[in-house]
């Protein structure tokens, strides 16, 4: 035992003074002292020859030794990393490790484009809360309680207060703007909306919409058409056509849905447009006079139009993203493909 302790003491000094100049000095150290065939493992083998009453003391001394060796190994590794201290010449002319600067999310890119197109037509951006009350999300929009139109949108209710919902559409912001502002009103409202849907490639429990609202004297359906036509041409190019189909929304009359010629197949027919050549991108219509009256805007004097579109759909048509889930999975292999866009 005495002799062993003496040997360990010498080893400690040896380890403390260990130095080398080669690049792999840390690895050499590890093999010599900490490896499976190393000095420390070998000494551990002596344990069986130690009398029982001294085993504990020997164990402690060995632990100290091992800890010392591991610390030394760490410091050798670190010194090796900076090269110089381990005696290795560091090549300062080597290129640095590239830093991934990241990029904008595709939905943000599309949102910025939409906002900039409508800004050029004089639309300002308005925002509203994502947790909304029943009045702004439904009732003010001509969807009183028990109105069947409420079923069009599967709603998330807030448990603590059934009067609160996660807004199902950005039309709630229309209501908020009309409440505060008097015509002329010309706003768009981009934002996140929520619906109680099972998540799949084609449906998600949250997505993004942009709402548009224009109220002034003499606003007509022709203005709506021209505004949307301008938007589509700016967004998708001059070759893209639009068409309107009659539809129903409780807060607009008349109401329509707008399709654009498929940007993937150019209208010839493909799987995205289900071989029709057309893809629906938004709902729209003339603001219902009842809505205007709800907010004290004289419906004999003023008229207006409104529209609402899904940003994910616009993004899908622009970038051919075929699965809605990709937008919220944060997979950098997906997101990296948009780096460099604005
Ligand atoms: N809010 C409607 C929806 O979510 C879209 C819409 C907005 C329709 C404005 C007409 C006018 O489906």
TrEMBL record:
<keyword id="KW-0067">ATP-binding</keyword>
<feature type="domain" description="Aminoacyl-transfer RNA synthetases class-II family profile">
    <location>
        <begin position="110"/>
        <end position="314"/>
    </location>
</feature>
<dbReference type="InterPro" id="IPR002319">
    <property type="entry name" value="Phenylalanyl-tRNA_Synthase"/>
</dbReference>
<keyword id="KW-0479">Metal-binding</keyword>
<comment type="similarity">
    <text>Belongs to the class-II aminoacyl-tRNA synthetase family. Phe-tRNA synthetase alpha subunit type 1 subfamily.</text>
</comment>
<dbReference type="InterPro" id="IPR004529">
    <property type="entry name" value="Phe-tRNA-synth_IIc_asu"/>
</dbReference>
<keyword id="KW-0963">Cytoplasm</keyword>
<dbReference type="InterPro" id="IPR010978">
    <property type="entry name" value="tRNA-bd_arm"/>
</dbReference>
<dbReference type="InterPro" id="IPR022911">
    <property type="entry name" value="Phe_tRNA_ligase_alpha1_bac"/>
</dbReference>
<keyword id="KW-0648">Protein biosynthesis</keyword>
<dbReference type="GO" id="GO:0000049">
    <property type="term" value="F:tRNA binding"/>
</dbReference>
<dbReference type="InterPro" id="IPR045864">
    <property type="entry name" value="aa-tRNA-synth_II/BPL/LPL"/>
</dbReference>
<dbReference type="GO" id="GO:0005737">
    <property type="term" value="C:cytoplasm"/>
</dbReference>
<dbReference type="GO" id="GO:0006432">
    <property type="term" value="P:phenylalanyl-tRNA aminoacylation"/>
</dbReference>
<dbReference type="GO" id="GO:0005524">
    <property type="term" value="F:ATP binding"/>
</dbReference>
<dbReference type="Pfam" id="PF01409">
    <property type="entry name" value="tRNA-synt_2d"/>
</dbReference>
<dbReference type="GO" id="GO:0000287">
    <property type="term" value="F:magnesium ion binding"/>
</dbReference>
<protein>
    <recommendedName>
        <fullName>Phenylalanine--tRNA ligase alpha subunit</fullName>
        <ecNumber>6.1.1.20</ecNumber>
    </recommendedName>
</protein>
<comment type="subunit">
    <text>Tetramer of two alpha and two beta subunits.</text>
</comment>
<dbReference type="GO" id="GO:0004826">
    <property type="term" value="F:phenylalanine-tRNA ligase activity"/>
</dbReference>
<keyword id="KW-0436">Ligase</keyword>
<feature type="binding site">
    <location>
        <position position="253"/>
    </location>
    <ligand>
        <name>Mg(2+)</name>
    </ligand>
</feature>
<dbReference type="Pfam" id="PF02912">
    <property type="entry name" value="Phe_tRNA-synt_N"/>
</dbReference>
<keyword id="KW-0547">Nucleotide-binding</keyword>
<keyword id="KW-0030">Aminoacyl-tRNA synthetase</keyword>
<dbReference type="InterPro" id="IPR004188">
    <property type="entry name" value="Phe-tRNA_ligase_II_N"/>
</dbReference>
<keyword id="KW-0460">Magnesium</keyword>
<dbReference type="InterPro" id="IPR006195">
    <property type="entry name" value="aa-tRNA-synth_II"/>
</dbReference>
